[in-house]
């Protein structure tokens, strides 16, 4: 499925007051809008993902999965700052004729959502039947449900929060420190900061998984190793894998964007902001999540009016929302069968 490009050829004003001269957004769609125009499923993707949700959320989105193009009109748009078709630090600055690099203006989760609202208007979408996302995607989804409560009918928030925590910000800052130690990051070259990005990804992985995950998946089978450990090889492999598909400048900006997440900003506090959500909401937390502890999802559940809560028991930690697609399917199936406010859906991993 090829990515389409939406071009907004007017100045795009950011929350900071700064502007982009124009905005491009890469997006993918699957299926068709039905006659009642009420079968839209809009996916907000996470930090380094892209708009091809059928590629990175297999088992949950696909021809024969719960979210499929036969029943739904599925939209996933690449986020501002990301290098997969949307305006980002490697885009050409019309003022200089060269890529922005570190001259790209800082932006927030709300700016990402504002861009996607323009895309929804362009696609003729007045009602989003289901809006969902995990992690940074969940941050976007919660913002959108607050910014346009009438447009969003059902909301699914997975492994996310109402405002980014000091713990999460500290992880992100540690990754940026790693990037900034690579002097090539300041060389204004497309591959600048590659070694720093590799180290940053290694740091991030520790928050995406946990002690038990590594103990199960990276444990040595023999006792005679003094070097060349599986866990070390895994960190190197995953770091190199990201370097081959991403860039340090987008990663730098998007980590700061995640830090900016606070639904209470200029809205008289977090609880007041969450009370504005009118969508019927499912909040899913992962018991073993180190980066977004389950208390953060319980907080969302407690303060979003029409919400239910489900706990996912997975040893994969934060990444469980990308892996445990069968359990997610069961939880969401149960969600659409209940109308009870305050219900806790008790489904646990069986495999």
Question: What would your notes on this structure say?
Answer:
With 351 residues, the protein is an alpha/beta fold. It folds into 2 domains: 4-164 and 262-345, Rossmann fold, CATH 3.40.50; 168-259, Rna Polymerase Sigma Factor, Chain: A (Orthogonal Bundle), CATH 1.10.1740.110. The chain has 12 helices and 13 strands. The chain has helices at 53-56, 109-122, 136-147, 166-180, 194-208, 211-217, 230-243, 248-259, 270-274, 294-303, 320-323, 325-335; strands at 4-8, 12-13, 19-20, 23-30, 40-44, 73-77, 92-93, 98-99, 128-134, 152-158, 280-286, 307-312, 344-345. Strands 1-4-6-5-9-10-11-12-13 form a 9-stranded mixed sheet, sandwiched between helices. It has a two-stranded antiparallel ribbon with strand order 2-3. It has a two-stranded antiparallel sheet with strand order 7-8. A hairpin with a 4-residue loop joins strand 7 and strand 8 (98-99). Helix 2 packs across helix 3, helix 4 (166-180) packs antiparallel against helix 5 (194-208) and helix 4 (166-180) runs antiparallel to helix 8 (248-259). The longest helix has 15 residues, at 166-180. It is globular and about 60 Å long. The protein starts with a strand and ends in a 6-residue tail after the last strand.
């Amino acid at each position: 499925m090829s990515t389409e490009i939406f071009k907004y050829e007017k100045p795009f004003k950011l929350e900071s007051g700064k502007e982009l001269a124009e905005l491009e957004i890469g997006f993918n769609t699957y299926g068709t809008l039905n006659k009642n125009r009420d079968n839209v499923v809009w996916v907000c993707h996470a930090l380094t993902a892209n708009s091809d949700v059928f590629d990175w959320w297999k088992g949950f989105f696909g021809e024969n999965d719960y979210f499929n193009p036969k029943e739904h009109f599925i939209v996933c748009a690449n986020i501002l700052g990301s290098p997969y078709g949307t305006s980002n630090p490697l885009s050409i600055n019309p003022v200089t004729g060269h890529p922005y690099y570190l001259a790209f203006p800082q932006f927030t989760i709300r700016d990402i959502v504002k861009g996607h609202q323009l895309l929804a208007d362009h696609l003729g979408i007045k009602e989003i039947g289901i809006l969902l996302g995990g992690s940074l995607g969940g941050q976007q989804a919660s913002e959108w449900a607050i910014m346009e409560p009438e447009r969003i009918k059902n909301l699914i928030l997975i492994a996310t929060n109402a405002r980014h925590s000091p713990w999460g910000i500290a992880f992100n800052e540690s990754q940026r420190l790693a990037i900034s130690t690579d002097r090539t990051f300041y060389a204004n070259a497309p591959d600048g900061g590659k070694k720093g990005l590799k180290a940053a990804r290694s740091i991030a992985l520790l928050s995406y998984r946990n002690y038990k995950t590594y103990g199960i998946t990276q444990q040595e089978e023999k006792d005679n190793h003094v070097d060349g450990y599986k866990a070390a090889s895994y960190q190197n492999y995953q770091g190199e894998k990201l370097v081959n598909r991403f860039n340090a400048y987008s990663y730098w900006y998007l980590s700061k964007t995640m830090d900016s997440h606070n639904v209470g900003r200029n809205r008289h506090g977090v609880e007041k902001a969450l009370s504005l959500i009118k969508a019927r909401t499912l909040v899913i937390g992962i018991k073993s999540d180190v980066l977004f502890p389950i208390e953060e999802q319980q907080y969302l559940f407690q303060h979003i009016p029409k919400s239910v809560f489900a706990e996912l028991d997975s040893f994969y930690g934060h990444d469980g929302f990308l892996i445990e697609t069968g359990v997610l399917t069961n939880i969401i199936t149960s969600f659409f069968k209940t109308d009870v406010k305050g219900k806790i859906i008790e489904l646990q991993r069986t495999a």
